[in-house]
Design a protein that fits this description.
The protein is an alpha/beta fold. It has two domains: 3-84, no CATH class; 98-454, Peptidase S8/S53 domain (Rossmann fold, 3-Layer(aba) Sandwich), CATH 3.40.50. The protein has twelve helices and 15 strands. The chain has a seven-stranded parallel sheet, with helices on both faces. The radius of gyration is 21 Å and the shape is globular.
Length: 457
């Protein structure tokens, strides 16, 4: 078959999505736009371009997945979004997002609840991916009048205005609209973002723990598949743990930040990331060199995986410039939530423990993470979608280079170390990006006041 005709036909299939398919040589850290000196067959139409290169050989190099190698060959396809600032988010290239998008770009049926500072609901790079409540009128009688895209638990209304910027930034990393010729794209270009506001720097009535618990309850009741939570603190809350157990019963995945205390979570736990529940995955942050940030928590028994978290470019409220960079485990957590959304889009039947084991065991092994995380891995979007349990990908295609893997490699047990949590200190906020906005004291707050937590609020 004439290759030009074949790929022209493929081009017509994706033109409505504003995408380009690129076939490149294997390079784990290749830029989203990849160029090669090898001969190419090229075609173009409209806003996309197709490049074919027969040297792609992903399976030939060590998969870092049980230290397996294979002599089989495969052809890699990358999807290039036409969003003009996509390359400013270095984490997309480092996690092989463009190759993952050739498998799936996500689904609006997958709902990710973002418990954060709210969002700019009219941001042009986000609004098309906002969750729309199918039961908004029904919810009126329960006190959630007008909860079209989520709820503001600070002021108890439907105003989701982001007065900080953190929530908009996190939402953009997870699911900024892809292929719309605007700004950037999220890890999951197609997704439904449920916005649950639990903190507002302008409010004098913040009770962050109570708001967090209520936000979790809302997400569970309204059918979220994944809950992204950047918050956390050094003290446990029985009520918080209970509501996450409730999420577990529904199969809901909770992606939680490991925290920005520069501390070993094996010694001093950070919650909710360190609750002993198999529907929670704890995420720390790395820089471009794949080193854990000096501000990020770590732990070989408590922190599951690493993801990009330094100077991450994403959406901001339009009155704060529309786009910008932030740093912290919050940003890393959003990367993992985005990958989880892609996995869920390809297999709606997967529950939280199954998604977690795929995330943990398909990442890239990095020597720099050996003393920092349990599995020594950073997230890899493409591998999470294509190299899965017993060689079966979420697409239903068996990957031959995983045929000899042992089933024990997919243990989903958290094996969280027993920790002794004292009463020293207070509760930290959800990351340096947010805390830089709030005046720092020796007793930084995650909840309203420490006495309120002692009362079980």
């Amino acid at each position: 078959m004439n290759l030009n005709r074949l790929f022209s036909a493929m081009a017509l299939m994706v033109v409505m999505c504003g995408l380009a398919l690129i076939h490149v040589t294997s390079n784990r850290q290749s830029e989203i736009v990849a160029h090669s000196s090898h001969s190419q067959v090229e075609d173009s139409a409209g806003d996309f371009e197709i490049r074919v290169n027969d040297d792609g050989n992903y399976a030939n190099r060590s998969q870092n997945f049980g230290e397996l190698e294979s002599s089989s060959t495969s052809r890699e396809t990358m999807v290039l979004m036409n969003d003009p600032n996509i390359n400013q988010n270095w984490g997309l290239a480092q996690t092989d997002a463009a190759k993952a998008w050739s498998v799936t770009q996500g689904s609006k049926k997958v709902v990710v609840a973002v418990i954060d500072t709210g969002i700019d609901v009219n941001h042009p790079d986000i609004r098309a991916n906002l969750w729309v409540n199918p039961d908004e009128r029904r919810n009126d009688k329960f006190g959630f009048r007008g909860d079209i895209h989520g709820w503001n638990f600070v002021d108890n209304n439907a105003d989701l205005t982001d007065n900080h910027g953190h929530g908009t930034h996190i939402a953009g990393i997870i699911g900024a609209v892809g292929g719309n010729k605007i700004g950037i794209t999220g890890i999951a270009p197609k997704v439904s973002l449920m916005i649950l506001k639990y903190y507002d720097p302008k409010s004098t009535s913040n009770n962050n723990l109570k708001n967090t618990i209520r936000a979790f309850e809302y997400a569970i009741d309204m059918g979220a598949d994944i809950i992204n939570y950047s918050g956390g603190g050094l003290e446990k809350s029985p009520q918080e743990e209970a509501v996450i157990k409730k999420a577990k019963e529904k199969g809901i995945l909770v992606v939680a930040a490991a925290g920005n205390e520069s501390s070993n979570s094996d010694v001093k736990g950070y919650y909710p990331a360190d609750y002993d529940l198999d529907n929670i995955i704890s995420v720390t942050a790395i820089d471009r060199r794949k080193n854990v940030l000096s501000s990020s928590n770590f732990g070989v028994k408590t922190v599951d995986i690493a993801a990009p978290g330094n100077d991450i470019y994403s959406t901001l409220p339009r009155d704060k410039g529309g786009y910008g960079v932030m740093t912290g485990t919050s940003q890393a957590t959003a990367f993992v939530s985005g990958v989880a959304a892609l996995i869920k889009a390809n297999n709606a039947d997967l529950r939280a423990p199954q998604i977690i084991k795929y995330l943990k065991h398909t990442g890239d092994v990095e020597p720099s993470l050996a003393s920092k995380t349990r599995y020594k891995r950073k997230i890899n979007t493409y591998r999470a979608l294509t190299i899965l349990d017993q060689g079966m990908g979420v697409t239903g295609v068996r990957a031959e280079n995983t045929a000899s893997m042992k089933s024990s490699q997919f243990s989903s047990e958290r094996q969280v170390a027993e920790t002794s949590v004292g009463n020293e200190g207070s509760i930290s906020g959800f990351g340096s990006a947010l805390l830089n906005h709030v005046q720092k004291t020796n007793s930084q707050k995650r909840i309203a006041e420490k006495p309120a937590r002692a009362q079980g609020i």
